[in-house]
């Protein structure tokens, strides 16, 4: 358990440390004059107790800075004061593992449902401390139930059903706990006008007709909590209905008395349930004015002979007052009301933590099931609350509920759906923003609502450094005893100022003292960058804590040095007294000149290809025709191949323009002949620049070579045979031309023939179409005479 708490606290410190670093050095801005003041600024602030830490011109408050800055400023680590908070568990009794059917019967005070029970937190300002609180709902936990009933006339039929409630409810509750007690109380209304009729007859019997009713009363404790169900039945059976004039009842008076009169009611330190049964609304604070009652309810017990005697004197309590008293006395309320008033009491439930609302049937026949259901609902939820917090102290909750469900914010205070035997936990963080004015320990208490158990947390505050306790009062170091020397610096007595308390406040600005703050007898005090305090310059602080004035006359600073690429000292050094102190391998007024030559190395391994010098990491080419990062580019040069073509041609083939002057002009390279192009060196095989060339001579023959510089020696590899183009073959050319002409002629004839065939077919088709469409006249010509003459023999008889 202790180890878990330590890990949680450490994690919180790391997270808060990261936040503080993002905020910048709030420590320096605070202008703390002592170690105690410094550690109150923020959790990341530390105080350097090294006597020799401050430089000339730095004020005492410069000792207060964030931890990393102090280390960078060379404060000895073991001289840095940075006290941390701590958690001590004083009482850590394990939660009870109890079985209902077990042989061991524990007293209520012997049952533990919350762990730990007491802690001591030592808080430093701005540093949250987190601890774990466990809650386990114990089985067979004792229950006290008080039944508070409205006995106005409208509840007459309900009273009949409640008369046997004691034994029936005892039987049902045995399933939940073996230690159950029940009590009974009743209420009607304040016994003044206009709530009741004050005529003598109505004071005796407030009911109309032949109804026999008891005298009106405000609240009566009928039965103190008992484990005898039959006694409940007997006393309730003796109760009579009463009456009043208005519809709202005085139930709030009764609830207040039930809550605060612990001894008269008989409450134990166990689960406390209050069942409030009514079929009407309620009066609350302010309504008493109708009866001339203006004194606020005092929240105290006023039971005499089990009767509330001050209803005519004190007003009804407010809802907030009831919430406070019910919470203080760990009472969980169940409102058993009829359907008509459900909306009103549901709104009231939202204002009263650990309360429930159930729908009461018109005659209260379902009251037992209502109580069981409401109890199960209330007991399945745990809600943490804390008492009043000291000024400057805050507390946050994180719940780890059933099945690992987590909650934060307001949901971090509670867990729901908890069954008997379930264990849940809460991570509780406590943080202080300042020391209390009296510096004394404070106590806060955290408890689950509706339970009597609580966690007591003692808060101690770190208001000063440990080294302050070892301080030397009236030390000679502090100008003849004008202060206390503690934590490496002087803490001046009242009326004294200065780094070593050397001045009185009355003499801080004199001409003699100001003269000591002028450099070289100039006119500017502290170079206009500081204030002259007791003849010593205390330099001003900049808006940016990283920017510092320093020096005896505040003439130096660390932010006015030369810049490069918009970076102070080019980002390769630091500024001291307006001059850049460069890192290794850098030089220049702005540390912008690199002494490294890696960026000047060419592919051949030479600095700037041997054509320049490396200055500040950049090649300065000696020959102006070369340029590029390593002097490798020559825009005006003819090219390597064209430059060496004539010399290679004359030496390898004894030809070319330099044939006659070859020995004189072309002996600057070493010539190596190879048989074919595959034997030429390849660029991937070399660690130095290599150029492949292909050139043509006057006879249109090609020759191939390479040019390279290796170890300052120029090498030329050349293919020893020229590659000349072959002459044209005449016969195939002539044959091809003739064949082409013939083929073209044949193609033209075929095309002509094809066109003629197509034309003839079109003409024939046209003729056939005209023939079929022709129409001829069949009438005879009138002048036509046939050439045939027929003669008939008259004597012919056909024989």
TrEMBL record:
GO molecular function, one term: integrin binding
Integrin beta subunit tail domain sequence ranges: 641-729
Domain of life: Eukaryota
Presence of the UniProt keyword Lipid metabolism in the record: no
Annotated Integrin beta subunit cytoplasmic domain residues: 753-799
Keywords: Calcium, Cell adhesion, Cell junction, Cell membrane, Cell projection, Disulfide bond, EGF-like domain, Glycoprotein, Integrin, Magnesium, Membrane, Metal-binding, Myogenesis, Phosphoprotein, Receptor, Repeat, Signal, Transmembrane, Transmembrane helix
Record-level GO cellular component terms: cell surface; focal adhesion; integrin complex; lamellipodium; melanosome; ruffle membrane; synapse
Membrane topology: Single-pass type I membrane protein
SUPFAM superfamilies per UniProt: EGF/Laminin (SSF57196), Integrin beta tail domain (SSF69687), Integrin domains (SSF69179), Plexin repeat (SSF103575), vWA-like (SSF53300)
Record carries keyword Membrane: yes
Name the UniProt record assigns to this protein: Integrin beta
Biological source species: Cottoperca gobio (Frogmouth)
């Amino acid at each position: 358990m202790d180890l878990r708490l330590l890990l949680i606290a450490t994690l919180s410190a790391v997270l808060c440390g990261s936040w503080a670093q993002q905020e910048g050095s709030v420590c320096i801005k605070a202008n703390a004059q002592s170690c105690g003041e410094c550690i109150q600024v923020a959790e990341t602030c530390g105080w350097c107790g090294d006597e020799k830490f401050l430089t000339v011109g730095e004020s005492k408050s410069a000792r207060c800075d964030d931890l990393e800055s102090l280390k960078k400023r060379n404060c000895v680590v073991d001289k840095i004061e940075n006290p941390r908070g701590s958690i001590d568990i004083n009482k850590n009794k394990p939660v009870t593992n109890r079985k209902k059917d077990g042989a061991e019967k524990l007293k209520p005070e012997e049952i533990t449902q919350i762990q730990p029970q007491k802690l001591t937190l030592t808080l430093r300002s701005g540093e949250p401390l987190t601890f774990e609180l466990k809650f386990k709902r114990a089985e067979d936990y004792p229950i006290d139930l008080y039944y508070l009933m409205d006995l106005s006339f409208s509840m007459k039929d309900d009273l009949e059903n409640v008369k046997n409630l004691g034994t029936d409810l005892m039987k049902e509750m045995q399933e939940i706990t073996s230690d159950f007690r029940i009590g009974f109380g009743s209420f009607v209304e304040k016994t003044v006008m206009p709530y009741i009729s004050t005529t003598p007859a109505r004071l005796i019997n407030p009911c109309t007709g032949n109804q026999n009713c008891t005298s009106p009363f405000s609240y009566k404790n009928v039965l103190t909590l008992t484990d005898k169900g039959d006694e409940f039945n007997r006393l309730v059976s003796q109760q009579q209905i009463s009456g009043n004039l208005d519809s709202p009842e005085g139930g709030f008076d009764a609830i207040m008395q039930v809550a605060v009169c612990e001894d008269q009611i008989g409450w134990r330190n166990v689960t406390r349930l209050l069942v409030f049964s009514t079929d009407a609304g309620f009066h609350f604070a302010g309504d008493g004015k109708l009866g001339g009652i203006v004194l606020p309810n005092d929240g105290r017990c006023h039971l005499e002979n089990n009767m509330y005697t001050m209803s005519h004197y004190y007003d009804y309590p407010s809802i907030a007052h009831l919430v406070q008293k019910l919470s203080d006395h760990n009472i969980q309320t169940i409102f058993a009301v009829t359907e008509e008033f459900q909306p009103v009491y549901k709104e009231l439930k939202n204002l009263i933590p650990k309360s429930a609302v159930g729908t009461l049937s018109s005659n209260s026949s379902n009251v037992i099931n209502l109580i069981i259901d409401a109890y199960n609902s209330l007991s399945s939820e745990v809600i943490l609350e804390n008492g009043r917090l000291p000024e400057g102290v805050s507390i946050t909750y994180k719940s780890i509920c059933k099945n690992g469900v987590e909650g934060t914010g307001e949901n971090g205070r509670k867990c729901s759906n908890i069954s008997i035997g379930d264990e849940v936990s809460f991570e509780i963080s406590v943080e202080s923003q300042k020391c209390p004015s009296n510096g004394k320990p404070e106590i806060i208490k955290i408890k689950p609502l509706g339970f009597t158990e609580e966690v007591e947390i003692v808060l101690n505050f770190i208001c000063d450094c440990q080294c302050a306790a070892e301080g030397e009062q009236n030390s000679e170091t502090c100008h003849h005893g004008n202060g206390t020397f503690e934590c490496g610096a002087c803490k001046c007595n009242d009326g004294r100022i200065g780094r070593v308390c050397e001045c009185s406040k009355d003499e801080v600005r004199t001409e003699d003292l100001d003269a000591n703050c002028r450099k070289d007898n100039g006119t500017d005090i502290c170079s206009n960058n500081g204030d002259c305090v007791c003849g010593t310059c205390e330099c001003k602080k900049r808006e940016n804590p990283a920017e510092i004035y320093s020096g005896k006359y505040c003439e130096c600073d660390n932010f006015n040095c030369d810049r490069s690429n918009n970076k102070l000292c080019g980002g390769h050094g630091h500024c001291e007294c307006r001059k850049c102190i460069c890192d290794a391998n850098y030089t220049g007024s702005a540390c912008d000149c690199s002494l490294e030559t890696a960026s000047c190395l060419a592919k051949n391994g030479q600095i700037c290809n041997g054509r320049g010098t490396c200055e500040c990491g950049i090649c300065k080419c000696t020959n102006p025709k070369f340029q590029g990062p390593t002097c490798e580019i020559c825009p005006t040069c003819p090219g390597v191949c064209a430059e060496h073509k004539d010399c290679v041609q004359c030496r390898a083939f004894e030809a070319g323009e330099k044939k006659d002057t070859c020995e004189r002009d072309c002996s600057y390279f070493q010539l190596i002949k190879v048989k074919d192009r595959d034997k030429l060196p390849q660029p991937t095989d070399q660690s130095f620049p290599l150029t492949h060339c292909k050139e043509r001579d006057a006879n249109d023959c090609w020759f191939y070579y390479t040019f390279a510089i290796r170890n300052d020696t120029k090498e030329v590899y050349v293919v020893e045979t020229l590659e000349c183009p072959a002459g044209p073959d005449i016969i195939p050319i002539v044959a091809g031309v003739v064949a082409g002409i013939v083929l073209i002629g044949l193609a033209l004839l075929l095309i002509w023939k094809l066109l003629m065939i197509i034309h003839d077919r079109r003409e024939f088709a046209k003729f056939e179409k005209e023939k079929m469409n022709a129409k001829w006249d069949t009438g005879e010509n009138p002048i036509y005479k046939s050439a045939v003459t027929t003669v008939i023999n008259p004597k012919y008889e056909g024989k």
